[in-house]
Amino acid sequence: MDDLLLRPIRASDDETVAAIIFDVMTEHGASGPGFAIHDAEVGAMSEAYAARERSACFVLESFDDGVLGCAAVAPLEGAGPEVCELRKMYFRPALRGRGAGRRMLRHTLRVAASLGFTRCYIETLASMTKARALYESEGFEKLCAPLGNTGHFACDMQYARTLDGLHVEAATIETERLVLRGPRPDDVDAVLTWLGDVEAMRFVGDGRPRSKVEVAHFLAASAHAFETRGFGFWIVTLRPSEASARGLEAGSVVGDAGLWPIPTSGRRGFRGPEIELGYRFAPVHHGHGYATEAASALVAHAGTFGLERLVAVTHPDNAASQGVLRKCGFTDEGVTERYYDTRCRAFSRAL
């Protein structure tokens, strides 16, 4: 079961995040003029990053201790449109030594790549040796001079790296008509054709179409899942023969399908230990049987991860998805409020 949740910041986090920034910067002697502690955004991080184009802010939350860390990404002022800045990545001592910094860093870099940036810039202090070691281990190189115009003239170390090589290795699963591959940052626009579509999202979660930043967050979270568990959400593409039959390009992205720890109601979005089968497709690709084909392939593949049982949930009125699950051998367990803090129809299947 996951004990840490990496999620977008909410307005209710602002006070906690401001305290983290203030305390950690003070701990490292970075409280004087020319440091980020004095930035106007510190007291209202959620609002500041929601208002910026191509920007995002995330927190790491512990189930028992609440929000313990944060990081943000935004365009670097005074640099070209291809350059972003990693901003305000700080953690409480309780998170240090648990891989939280690496997880947050990779997440924000993948989100930045999805938002169209090709280079990321960081300012820090020479005295923050552990942070510098992390940056260098993740491909950042020291610069001879600052980039852009951050206003943080007191920072004495600058780093940058290109945003390539951020894709994750994932097992490729092939079926008669489909290829399921791991997610990449540049999948964001394709995935928006269903996660950002009103009709496609009608029976998914709260029914709200997702923004590009939210889709970028989903892709980065899925990449982390593959890195840590070996499974997550695969991107579903067409094999050359199927694409040709439909007049499309080989490798065309049609949907996603995956295995994912499911959040039990009352756990604030924390997931596990049960594993959920899920699938979503762009409306233009509905009616071709792709959901059944992809779901069947994942059921057959799930045992290779040591899984013994899968669950799945649908909106109570989503008869089409319920039909897919029955074709895949799932048993209907009826309507419940056990998952996602909402009414849904639950299914399960032993492997």
3D structure, described in words:
- Helices cover 28% and strands 28% of the residues.
- It is α+β, with helices and mostly antiparallel strands.
- The protein has two domains: 159 residues, Aminopeptidase; 178 residues, 3-Layer(aba) Sandwich (Aminopeptidase), CATH 3.40.630.30.
- The strands form three sheets. Strands 1-2-3-4-5-7-6 form a seven-stranded mixed β-sheet, with helices on both faces. Strands 8-9-10-11-12 form a five-stranded antiparallel β-sheet, sandwiched between helices.
- A hairpin with a 3-residue loop joins strand 8 and strand 9.
- Helix 8 packs across helix 9.
Features:
7-stranded mixed sheet, 2 domains, 351 residues, single chain, 28% helix, Aminopeptidase, alpha+beta
Please provide a brief summary of the model:
The chain is α+β, with helices and mostly antiparallel strands and 351 residues long. Helix content is 28%, strand content 28%.
Q: So how many helices?
A: 9
Mean pLDDT: 96
Spatial sequence of strands, sheet with the most strands: 1-2-3-4-5-7-6
Radius of gyration: 21 Å
Number of strands: 15
> How much of the sequence is in beta strands?
25-35%
Q: List the uncertain runs.
A: none
Give the CATH class of the largest domain: Alpha Beta
Order of helices and strands: EHHEEEHEHEEEEHHEHEEHEHEE
CATH domain topology of the largest domain: Aminopeptidase
Query: Which architecture of the largest domain per CATH?
Result: 3-Layer(aba) Sandwich
User: Which structural class is indicated by helix and strand composition?
Assistant: alpha+beta
Distance between the termini: 20 Å
Overall spatial form: globular
Helix content percent band: 25-40%
| Domain tally | 2
* Assembly level: single chain
